[in-house]
Amino acid sequence: MRVFVTGASGWIGSASVDELIAGGHEVVGLARSDGSAAALEAKGATVLRGDLDDLDALRRGARESEGVVHLANKHDWANPAESNRAERVAVETLAGELVGSDRPLLVASGVAMLAEGRPGTEDDPSRNVGPDSPRGGSENRAFDFVDQGVRAVAVRFAPTTHGDGDHGFVSLITAAARTHGVSAYVDDGVTTWSAVHRSDAARLVRLALEGAPAGSRVHAVAEESIPSRAIAEAIGAALDVPVTSVARDDAIEHFGFIGGFFGMDLSASSALTRERFDWRPTGPTLLEDIAAGAYTRDRAGV
């Protein structure tokens, strides 16, 4: 299958490109820089230059593909409204080009706020509806195109897709521990996050592209509920610094914007995904990655 991938040089995207190529697919990756283009070409992918605001490039990539994997996002935490706008427009543009084709469109999503008092499941619809909602309501917007002949699928990633070299949420929490000399959790540390190793997430992307029915929600979740205190303790042990609690009202001052997420319950189940797609995560756990130095190793000169 000829697959157009946005975010192809990103953390999840680059692993997904490797997985797709290894699975026999031809990959066309969107690249906005010379460095990204060179990295994709080195993997054996074809490059399409452009970014999320280049709608002509998005249309061309979708039009000339047999399937689309949309992983790019601006992630502008200083201006989330712009990230949400760009995400919604990108999904509408990609889906619009696939109308009537029955070709797959995988859209990256998350597991936040799916349910209260229990882990979210694949049967829980996203509460993000409309352009002003997180990610511009892109998951539900993609599903609007199912009746127009688009095999839209939401791939919901755990809040941490971890691994050696990750610069995401856990790296920011680790950076705060370095800065303050203590590894902190919020309040009593009982809120939990789900997690998945990058390699397992990439494999699920391929499986969903190849076989997920239109309107499916798949959960890239290997571990359902890891207490935030356990994450802080693992970081503290890796850095050899004390572990302490930070009051919720002080979390953003201590951690930066990630403090607003670290105190949230972001747990989710992947039981239905495993059953439906025979997906069996095999990568290290989050705490194993932290203990192995994935977030504390000095990479100077590497």
UniProtKB/TrEMBL annotation:
GO terms for cellular component: cytoplasm. InterPro entries: Epimerase_deHydtase, NAD(P)-bd_dom_sf, NAD(P)-dependent_oxidoreduct. Residues 3-211 form the NAD-dependent epimerase/dehydratase domain. Residues 116-140 are annotated as: Disordered. Gene3D superfamilies: NAD(P)-binding Rossmann-like Domain. Signal peptide: none annotated. GO terms for molecular function: aldehyde dehydrogenase (NAD+) activity. PANTHER family: PROTEIN YEEZ, PUTATIVE-RELATED. This is Nucleoside-diphosphate-sugar epimerase.
